[in-house]
Specification:
Length: about 210
Amino acid sequence: MSNQQLQLPLNYSVLIQKDGTKTGIDSEFPINELDRLAHRESFNKHLYRPNTYLHKWWARRSGVTFRYILKQLSDDPDKRDYYAAGGLENKLILDPMMGGGTTVHEAIRLGASVIGYDLDPIPVLQAKASLTPVPLREKQEIFNKLVSCLQNSLEKLFHTQCPICRANSETQFMIYGLRKICKCGEAIVVDSLRVREETNGIYTYIDPCNQQ
């Protein structure tokens, strides 16, 4: 599908203000077609995760929807193709209630300048965090500092003893169970003995028969 054009024009009427300003009012929206694209995006975030998904936001919408709407603002008809790069160069996009920032992110990807605003300071902070360029070296330094702090404060809580040789060891995998007592004695009840899942579909389990 990426080799084909996807042009689903919005049907809208033009409202001319007293000062001559033109405002487009959409009267029809291709819901079904865009819903299929949004469905693909929502189930493929593990393969390609846009910046907007770096932070949780309760009312985040799919970037597909905003990209398509913004595409209709291009002066070049060929650039209104959903898969065409750019199209909003030299345009300014204002989002006065930007929420999770999806609109401003998509507008920037299409070449526009943006202004985002929100009464809630949290989405403003999130947008700044995901849009501010940070050198890779600085990111690595911050990450190393975070790991070091976590090790100093938490590492001692994640040590165990090998059930076979009794040597001390760092805990790599954990499962949580509920301790229950009945007439027969005490037992640990867990939902699953699976402790790891590989990308190739291979699972790692704890074998209760080998526990000592």
